[in-house]
Amino acid sequence: MKPSKNVQTFLGFDNEYETSEIVVFGSPFDGTTSFRPGTRFAPAIMRNESYGLETYSPYLDKDLEDVAIFDAGDLDFPFGNPKKVLDMIHSFTKDIVEDGKIPVMIGGEHLVTLPAVEAVYEKYKDLYILHFDAHTDLREDYMGEKFSHATVIKRIWDFLGDGKIYQFGIRSGEKKEFEWSKEHTKLTKFNCEGLQEAVKKIGQAPVYITIDLDILDPSIFPGTGTIEPGGISFKEMMEVIKTIMPLNIVGADVVELSPHYDNSGVSTAVACKIIRELVLAISKK
Q1: Which of 34, 59, 214, 221 has an alpha carbon 20 to 30 Å from 227's alpha carbon atom?
Q2: Alpha helices in the chain, H assignment, sequence order
Q3: Bridging pattern class, strands 56-57 and 62-63
């Protein structure tokens, strides 16, 4: 399923597919959300609200007008069939990667990260993951279900193994998840300290970035399904994005905006700005 032209694009993401460096697409799925659903509406609403932004980033001194980005729109998922949804994301991401482009996915709940990472991993076997989140997402299962937004990083670990997953901002999870992480992932609680050291250690190995927006404190980002007080600030998130710029980023996603839980629109505006900064940071131009 090759990407086709999208009618309503995210601000500045209107380049042609063939000449684009980065391909953005939406995965509007929240079929395993365990608390408050609504992330399926995020990609479409973010596109509309993105026009409140400028194309220029004063944080990075880069402009979307100078970067070739293609917005493929949202995948059209069936209802009631999570396995097919995951297969569709995998297939779509694989096509992008095989065409030598960088996939950037807008979720959707965090489980959508799994098939995207699997597709990227098929090309880049020495792949690393940088995971920014409030939650560990390291459960073996959630209420008996192995495939859930609460298990997504554990499922990724299943094929990546030890030493390849760095987790930042984590402040919620079962005790046994935190205990398990001590031997299997590199987990930083509450903040993003140690990110610079991780970037240096990874060097130019391929990296996939996954940002669960609930890493942000709910005082600035209440529009998410599982709110966890004590998160990082927007300024800290901008420092994260500047820090990861030297990396060889081969795929990324931003997930877990539930826009209808913040009627002010602030959460959506924050999410849009993070998308703008992330794609500019990823671009090699």
Answers
A1: 59
A2: 42-49, 82-98, 113-123, 152-160, 175-184, 195-202, 234-244, 266-282
A3: antiparallel
